[in-house]
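Recap from last week: sequence in, structure out.
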Amino acid sequence: RKKISIFDTDHVCGLCSGLTKSWVWASFLQGNNIIYTDAWDSTTTPSPWVYAAPANRESMRLAMSYVKTYADKMDLKTAIPRPTYSTTGYCLSNPDTEYLIYQPVNGSFTVTMASKQYYYEWFDPTDGAIEGSGTVSTSGTSHTFLQPSTITGDAVLYLKALTTPDPGGDCEIATIKALVAAANKGDTVTI
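Predicted structure tokens:
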């Protein structure tokens, strides 16, 4: 039986000051729904209800909106947190179909996945930009990924298996968008 887990910052850690966008991504990929509680009493200095450092508040709000974008892309009814599927420890997956991985530090990581062709999308959670997309073919039971050099901190990787035919057309549309984006950046595109 599945239960809904709601992480409300004032119940998770009380007077938190160390919450960041990383906490938002890590919590979501562990299967939690995130709620950020803003300060209730801003007239007191220092406020007894300030949960995140002022510099982190906006990045947390933005992270929640970015997480929502990926939550809408995935089939969350069947997605399960699978920390062992990625060496980062943060993977939400519908095995053989789609994977969302959070990499909290810059560097390579390995994902356990079926041998298939996937649409991939690299997302920079710091500036909210898609920094690369396309297709990748995997063989074996795992594949190592290295985030693009344009992402200098934490990163998010979304993978969706390409199917033939794709009745919804989502993957083909995503692939076309990736090819158009590459062509617009001046990259050579072969079809």
